[in-house]
Amino acid sequence: MNECDRSTCPCLIHSRKRRYADAFRIVQGDTLHDDEPSIVLAPAFWSDFRRRYWNRKPVAFRKPAVRDFPTAKESLEAIVAASDELRRGGDVLLRLYLEHVSEGESIESRYFASAVEFPKDHLPTREDFSLEAYARRAEQRFHGHRFGLFINDVQAHHFRHWLRMSGFLAGLYAAIGVPGGGVQSAIHFGTYRHTPFGIHKDEAHVFTFVVEGTKTMLVWPLESFSRKTHPEVPPDPEHEEAKIAIRDRAEYRRLMRSAVRLRGNPGDIIYWPPSYWHRSEPVPAPTCTIALLLKPTGWEFLRSNPEPLRNAEASTLMPPRQALPGKKVYRLPKRVSDAIREKRLEPARQRSGNGAMRSWMSFATSRGFVTPAPLDRDATLKGVSAVRANPRRPIVRARVDSRHVLVACNGWTQRILAHPRLLELIELLNSGSAVNLRNAKRDFSGRATRRGVTYEVNRNYVRDLVLVLLRWRAVSPCRPEAVDPHTPR
Question: Which end of the chain has the smaller Cβ count within 10 Å, N or C?
Fold first, then answer.
C-alpha cells in the first residue's frame, strides 16, 4: 500500500494490527475454514492425468479423492435448494424428463424422453429425506415412468458444493491452467435408461463424479460420425455442441460394438474430452452424478460486456498464479487486457475496460465458475461481535478511478470508496485476524487524505461493508475471547 497522510490518518495497519491480532484469539473449533469441504487429489494424480489423459482420451478413475468426495446427502440438499429457488420464481437451469417405451419398435428407437413443461410440482422438497425416497415418490407420481432430473449451475445454489468443487478445480488448474471459457457444475439424478437427448457431445471437458448408484457411459471418438453420413454434425464439431440421430439397426449395432464403455461406482470419477460423443446406459437403481464441464476456449467473463468485447475468442488456459486472486491489489491478466485492447474500443474504452475488470474479478474470485457462489441472504450482524475471513479465499480489490476501488470475493463485486482505512480493514481481514465489529466501526471510519484526495466515511458505512462481506460469505462470525494484549503468547 502507498503511504497515507499520517497527520490525518495514522497507518492503522502498523499501529493497530498487533492490537487486533493480540487482543483476540479464536476459540478452537470455531474457525471459519477448518470444516470447509474441499476435494483433494494427490499432486501425482494430476501430473499423471495431464500427461496421459487431458484432451487425449477418456478414463474412469477408481476412488482417486483423498478426502471430501461429494455425498448423497449434500447432493439432495443442492437439488432441493435449486428446486426451492425455481418455486420462488428464480432463474434456474433445470430440466425434468420422463422416459417412455414404444413396444414393438426397434431397440434403437424403443426408448424416448419427453420434457415436463411445468416441473415445479414434481421436484424434491425438504420432506424428502433421501435421494431414494424422492425416486420412489417420483415414480409413483409418474405412474411408473422412469425419470431424469438435470440441474445446471448447482454451485450457485449450495455453498458447500461450491467449496468442494473449488478444491477439485484448484488441483486441476495447477496441472492444466485456468479455462477462460468457464466452468459449470451440474447434477444428474434419476432412473432413466439412456441420456434423454441421446448420443451427443459438449464443447467442454467433462468430469463426472459418481455419488450414488452405478454409472455406465458409452463414448465414441470424434471421427465416429462424419458430416457425410450425418448432416447434423457441425462444421467444427470439436468446439461445438451437437447430437446424433441413429439411422438404422445396422448403425446401432456398429456403434454398440465400437463404443468405449466407462463404468463408475460411488467415489469414482469419469473423464472425457470435448472430442468424444457420449450416452449413458441403463442401470438397475437410481443414480446420482455430478458433472464439471470446463470450456477451454473463449472468454466467458466478457459475455456481459458491450458487443465489441463479447466475441473475443482465443485458447484461454492460463496459469493459476496469473489468473486467480492472491495479490493485495488485483490487475487484469495480460492475456485478458490484450484481448480487450485488440477490440480497439472507441469512446467507451474506459467504461468497457472497467466493466471487463468487474466481470473478470467476479469470474476469477468464483474460481472460474460461470455463476458466483450463493449469497447468504438471511445474514445479519445482530448478535455478531467479531468476524474473520479465510485467507485462502481473499477479498481482492482493484482501483477503477481516483476515488473508488472494486472489491470482490466468491464471485461477487462491489464498488466502494478508496478510503485508506477501508483498504486497511480489508487487508486485516485477509490476514486471517478476528476483527471486533465495535472497534472496527470506530477505527476504520472518519476522514483521511491520500494523494491529495480527502475521503470520509461514517460508522454505518463500515458496518454496511462488513454486512455485504458477510452475505457474500467472504467473512464469517466468530467468537473472540478477549485476552490482555500485553500477555505473551
Answer: C
Largest CA distance in the chain: 89
Round to whole Å and give the CA distance between 416 and 400: 10
Buried b (16+ CB within 10 A) or exposed e, 399-425: ebeeeebbbbbbbbbeebbbbbbbbbb
232-270 CB burial, b ≥16 within 10 A, e <16: ebeeebebeebebebeeeebeeebeeebbebebebebbb
The whole model's pTM is what?
0.83
Contact 387, 466 (CB under 8 A): yes
Q: Are 188 and 293 in contact (CB under 8 A)?
A: no
Eight-class DSSP state of 315: B
CA distances from 466 to 47, 288, 460 (A): 40, 38, 10
Cβ pair 200, 277 in contact under 8 A = yes
Q: Which H, E and C letters describe 365-390, residue by residue?
A: HCCCECCCCCCCCCCCCCCCCEEEEC
Question: Cell 426408448 appears where?
Answer: 111
Rounded CA gap, 20 and 12, in Å?
Answer: 10
Cα–Cα distance measured from residue 62 to residue 269, given in angstroms and rounded to the nearest whole number: 7
Q: Of 101-115, 252-266, 333-347, where does the model show the most confidence?
A: 252-266
Convert 114-132 to b/e letters by CB count within 10 Å (16 or more is b).
eebeebeebbbeeebeebb
Buried b (16+ CB within 10 A) or exposed e, 193-212: bbbbebbebbbbbbbbbbbb
Got the DSSP string for 157-225? Answer: T-HHHHHHHHHHHHHHHHHH-EETT-EEEEEEEE--SS-TT-SEE-SSEEEEEEEES-EEEEEEEGGGS
pLDDT digits (tens, 9 = 90+) for 95-145: 998 876 666 555 445 555 666 767 888 999 999 989 999 999 988 888 888
| Pairing mode, strands 242-243 and 287-294 | unpaired
At residue 104, the 3 state secondary structure works out as coil
